[in-house]
Every structure is written in structure tokens, then in C-alpha cells.
Specification:
The complex is a heterodimer of chains A (134) and B (377).
Chain A (H helix, E strand, L loop, with lengths): L1 E7 L4 E4 L1 H11 L4 E6 L5 E6 L4 H14 L13 H13 L2 E7 L2 E2 L6 E6 L5 E10 L1
Antiparallel strand pairs in A: 1-8, 2-7, 3-5, 3-8, 4-7, 5-6
Chain B lengths: L2 H29 L3 H5 L3 E6 L2 H17 L3 E5 H6 L14 E6 L6 H12 L3 E6 L5 H5 L2 E4 L12 H20 L6 H16 L3 H13 L7 E6 L2 H17 L2 E6 H6 L12 E4 L7 H14 L3 E5 L9 E4 L8 H20 L18 H4 L9
Parallel strand pairs in B: 1-2, 1-3, 3-4, 4-5, 6-7, 6-8, 8-9, 9-10
Helix pairs in contact in B: 1-7, 1-8, 1-13, 3-7, 3-10, 7-8, 9-13, 10-13
The chains are: A alpha+beta (134), B alpha/beta (377).
């Protein structure tokens, strides 16, 4: 089963999409298997982060911006400097994550949530969730 | 084929020209100035003469809104001889982008302006159809605005292609400067591209009312063309077409300035006015007051707008509603048709046939062959 959800990002940063994965899983009726969260964009990514301190989320985002600052001299100039930096950030973080499913629940720890990571917002985005039984 | 038919063919062709034109110019305008160069721009000058100046004037507000930079439209004389301190101390013009607009690429004063600014360190961009022309050689970069020629008539397609190129550049700069977010520029490009589809029926819808207006023109000796912001560019273009096609004295005026100046002219019932007034434009409230005033004066008036009733009972031409930045493109249709029908009704030859006292303009001699002086003010 493949589910696609639309997102309207308001700014760059992390957006919790765990509830979307749980909703798709519940709809699928799968109790044992694998769940893939995929982001079909080249300037956005998906990752797992602790949700408990909002400032911790900001730290995570700030740090990748420190590693890959938005500059005007990227060779890729088709779009914007933020877009060029976004391609690099997204490549480093990755565009998908896989989670096991056991007893109808996602294999996530207490301090783990799934986050859509926007690097070139605000944009109209989507998140895809694929569930495999087995 | 009569000159009226030729002019109307140009107007009709806009319907199918605009979309493909955006498709061709978009990649060029996207690449012509690099990202670091765009970040180095501190002011923008849009310059040209005739229609090309009016295209710059029409596009300047959009450039200002989108880039947040100081942007000025200048005639080529002003840009060449009266801006940048030329003739006095040599200035460093780094940080200035000068966009020079000339379809032929041979207008002497504009070539001179481009060369002067380039010599002083400005980034110079020419919008021209002539890759090997003098403007293309004088400017550091070129966007090729060549389009297929349709019919020999006062330039209409060439004006619209200049507007499109300028609009695309403004969108591009705003995108790179991140003044608008990533989905917005593509939305604007799409809007621009789709304007052509909205022009399909305009010529047939406007022919009768414009013809009726033109048939009143036998005793008219001059025209006032009015507008503000981008529509002041349309007023200028409209005046230019009336002069070129009909040989009638026509002057563009800002809607506000009308109240200060043109309001007072004598014999108001013999001086027609055409007001270009988008109903949701920044100047709309003043345009409404102007409509009322023109009515009180008894001016023969035509209001080009996008909202029924905006003309307050005066002759009204309804154009498709587009955002104010793009209004000059749709306003081109009634402006060109007005000139075509006035010329036809009065029996005047376009450009007076370049004959008799006007023979000096053959081959654009008067604007091409002025002496170029890149050294002195």
C-alpha cells in the first residue's frame, strides 16, 4: 500500500509526520512488516529526531545550516542559493527512512519521531508512505 | 493588404505569441546574470527610447516591488548624458545594472549609454534582436528578443516582447534574491505565459467601440493618454502609436499630474483622453476621481479597465483582469487598435510614408546616425 500526503511548509525546519505514518499503518491493517517514509523532493529530507524540546529541533536545523551555509557562489545557479544549499543538505540527510512494524506499531523509541525536513520552504510538498507486509 | 489590416494582424498575433515567447526567453533571462552578480546589484537602470523606454517605464514598478532595489527608467539621453556623473569626475559604477532595450540594437544614443556605463564598471545588459548589432557589442551581456515578423506596422510585438523579457528578469532577480519563495516565481511565470490565451477575442470585441471613438476624431488635434505606475508605460506606448500611425500629437501623462496640468487646457471637448486604469491598481482610487473629472470636463474619453462600471458611464473597454505588473501587456491591444483605427479614419499614412519632410527618417536614419560620443557629457 502506498499513501501520499500533501504538506504546505511555512518555513525551513522540521515537521513531525509521525502521525501520518501511524495513520497509514492503521489503515493498512498490517501488524508485521516494514514501513517506508519517502520524500519525493531534492531540497527536503526525512529523519528521526527527539521531539520533546522544540529548541532541540531548532538546534538540529541550525547545525545543518552551519555545515552547509547558504552561499551565492554555488555552481548550481538554476534556482536560488537556498535551493542550491538545500540540494546538499537533502543529499546528506537522505530522502527516505525505513521502520519495522511489530504488533501493528512502528519501531520507534520513546524519544523518536519522524520528521519531514524542509530546506527550501515555504513550498507545496508531499510525503509518501509505503507499507510492506511480512 | 491595407495598413489597417497589417496593424490589426500584429495585434491579433499577440494571442499566440506570448506563451511561446515566455518559453524561449525564460531560460535566457534565467542564465544571463549569475547569482553572485545579482547579489552585487545595488541599483537598476532601465533605458531605451520610444517604445523601448515605455517598456522600461512599464516594468520599473515591478522591478522595484520584486527586488527592493532602487530602479529607474530613463530615456537613452538621460542615461547617456545626465546620469552617472559623466563629463565630470569619472565614477565607478560597479553595483549598477543597466538594462538597455532596443529591438534593432542600433539606436545611437542607447548604444552610447551602454558603452559609457560599461566603461565605468556597470554591468550592462542589452535586450535586442540583433546579436551582431552595435548594442550587442556595447553591452556585456545580451538577451535575444528576436521574434517572427508578422506585418509591417508600428511596433507592437516588439514592445510586448520587451515587456516579457523585463518581467522575466524581474521575477528572476526576486527569485535569486529570495524576495519571493520558491513556488512563487514559477507561478508568476505561468501567469505571464497564460496572458496570451486571454487576448484571443479582444480584437473583435474592441473593434466596434474603438472604431466609433476613432470616427469622432476628424477634428481632434491632440490626445492625452493617462495612467499611473505600469499603466503610465501603456499611456506612453499608446501615445507613441498614435503619433507613428495617425500623425496626431499625443502625450502621455500620469493620472495625478493630469489634475495639476492637463486639467486646465482650453477647449476640453475637443481633446480626447484615454485612461489606462486597472481596477485594483495602486492608483485605482485616483483613477476613479479622474474618470469623474474627465466626465465633468466633457472630454471625449475612453477608459481601459478590467471592471465593468469603473468607467463611470464613459466609453469603457474591458480588458482581462491580470495583476497590475502585467497590465501593460493586455493594455497593448486597445492602445494599438486605437492608433490603427484613428489612422485609418483620418486617412493618414503610417510614419507619413517616410516621405516629404519626414524622408529623413528613412532607414531609421535619424536615430541610428546620431554621433556617438562615449567620452564627453
Amino acid at each position: 500500500m502506498l499513501k501520499t500526503y500533501s504538506l504546505e511548509t511555512k518555513a525551513n525546519g522540521l515537521i513531525d509526520v509521525t502521525s501520518l505514518a501511524e495513520e497509514a499503518l492503521a489503515e493498512s491493517g498490517v501488524s508485521e512488516g516494514m514501513l517506508l517514509v519517502s520524500v519525493p523532493h531534492s531540497t527536503a529530507a526525512v529523519s528521526v529526531v527527539s521531539p520533546w524540546d522544540p529548541l532541540g529541533l531548532e538546534d538540529v536545523h541550525d547545525e545543518i545550516c552551519r555545515l552547509v551555509p547558504t552561499r551565492v557562489d554555488f555552481k548550481h545557479q538554476h534556482d536560488t542559493p537556498q535551493d542550491a544549499a538545500g540540494h546538499i543538505k537533502a543529499a546528506l540527510v537522505g530522502h527516505s527512512r525505513v521502520f519495522y512494524v511489530h504488533d501493528g506499531k512502528l519501531g520507534l523509541g520513546h524519544s523518536q519521531k519522524i520528521f519531514f525536513w524542509e530546506f527550501d520552504g515555504p513550498r507545496s510538498r508531499s510525503v509518501e508512505i509505503k507499507i510492506l507486509r511480512g | 493588404m491595407s495598413q489597417l489590416d497589417d496593424f490589426i494582424r500584429q495585434v491579433r498575433s499577440l494571442h499566440t505569441m506570448i506563451g511561446p515567447c515566455v518559453d524561449i526567453l525564460e531560460p535566457e533571462t534565467r542564465k544571463v546574470i549569475s547569482t553572485p552578480e545579482i547579489y552585487g546589484i545595488r541599483q537598476i537602470i532601465l533605458t531605451g527610447s520610444g517604445d523601448s523606454y515605455f517598456a522600461g517605464a512599464a516594468a520599473a514598478p515591478m522591478f522595484r516591488d520584486l527586488t527592493g532595489l532602487p530602479v529607474q527608467a530613463m530615456t537613452s539621453m538621460e542615461a547617456s548624458r545626465y546620469a552617472g556623473g559623466f563629463g565630470k569626475s569619472v565614477i565607478n559604477a560597479r553595483g549598477t545594472l543597466v538594462i538597455s532595450i532596443s529591438y534593432s540594437g542600433e539606436a545611437a544614443r542607447l548604444v552610447e549609454a551602454a558603452q559609457r556605463w560599461r566603461d565605468r564598471g556597470a554591468l550592462t545588459l542589452g535586450l535586442t534582436s540583433a546579436r551582431e548589432g552595435r548594442l550587442a557589442k556595447a553591452a556585456e551581456r545580451v538577451v535575444n528578443t528576436r521574434i517572427e515578423e508578422v506585418a509591417p506596422a508600428p511596433g507592437t510585438r516588439t514592445y510586448v516582447v520587451a515587456l516579457i523579457a523585463l518581467n522575466l528578469l524581474a521575477i528572476r532577480f526576486a527569485e535569486v534574491l529570495m524576495r519571493i519563495t520558491m513556488d512563487a516565481p514559477n507561478g508568476l511565470r505561468r501567469e505571464l505565459s497564460e496572458i496570451g490565451t486571454q487576448l484571443g477575442d479582444l480584437e473583435s470585441a474592441f473593434s466596434a467601440p474603438i472604431r466609433a471613438f476613432a470616427e469622432l476624431s476628424r477634428d481632434w488635434r491632440c490626445f492625452d493618454l493617462l495612467g499611473s505606475g505600469p499603466s503610465l508605460g501603456s499611456a506612453g506606448y499608446s501615445a507613441a502609436k498614435l503619433v507613428e500611425a495617425a500623425g496626431i500629437h499625443a502625450v502621455a501623462q500620469d493620472s495625478e499630474e493630469f489634475f495639476h496640468l492637463n486639467f486646465f487646457v482650453d477647449c476640453p471637448t475637443t481633446i480626447p483622453a484615454v485612461l489606462y486604469a486597472p481596477s485594483d491598481g495602486a492608483a485605482a482610487s485616483r483613477s476613479r476621481e479622474l474618470v469623474e473629472t474627465l466626465g465633468q470636463l466633457g472630454r471625449p474619453t475612453m477608459v481601459v479597465t478590467d471592471q465593468a462600471g469603473f468607467g463611470g458611464g464613459l466609453t469603457e473597454l474591458l480588458v482581462p483582469r491580470v495583476r497590475e505588473w502585467f497590465a501593460p501587456i493586455v493594455q497593448t491591444v486597445p492602445a494599438a487598435l486605437l492608433a490603427a483605427h484613428v489612422a485609418d479614419h483620418r486617412g493618414t499614412r503610417h510614419y507619413r510614408g517616410h516621405d516629404g519632410p519626414w524622408s529623413g527618417a528613412r532607414g531609421a536614419n535619424l536615430v541610428r546616425n546620431s554621433r556617438i560620443d562615449v567620452n564627453r557629457g
